[in-house]
């Protein structure tokens, strides 16, 4: 089964790996510079206190890409299976992916909360529209 909505799904998965690479490319050197011990008893809070905010932002964003996007994946895959992965649903999916990428770039660089929040809310609305359209298509 081929459905155009699988393209934005693949794009967001690949973007998540870009953020994964970026987080380690900045975190490992920062940990070395701060001489953070590789102690298994160390908590996430301990690590966060040892690292500069600009380094933490990438890891925070990677974690965010493992949260709400799971709803996107489920919705997009359900739309694909239902044969409704084109047209407006496809546009909404690409809008969601574009907004998540923009959200990542803001959070990983400047982390301006108002901008990040606006991008998150717009993406959430696109995802909500996709979910509502899925529900209607299944009725």
Gap from first CA to last CA = 22 Å
Low-confidence stretches: none
One letter per element, helices H and strands E, the order comes to HHHHHH
Oligomer: single chain
Class derived from helix and strand content: mainly alpha
Please tally the helical runs, counting DSSP H or I stretches of 4 or more residues.
Answer: 6
Number of strand elements: 0
Form type: elongated
- Tally the structural domains: 1
Amount of helix = over 70%
Supply the CATH class: Mainly Alpha
Q: How much is the radius of gyration in Å?
A: 18 Å
- Main beta sheet: strand number and arrangement? none
Q: What is the average of the pLDDT values?
A: 96
Based on the coordinates given, report the CATH architecture: Up-down Bundle
Let me know the CATH homologous superfamily: Membrane associated eicosanoid/glutathione metabolism-like domain
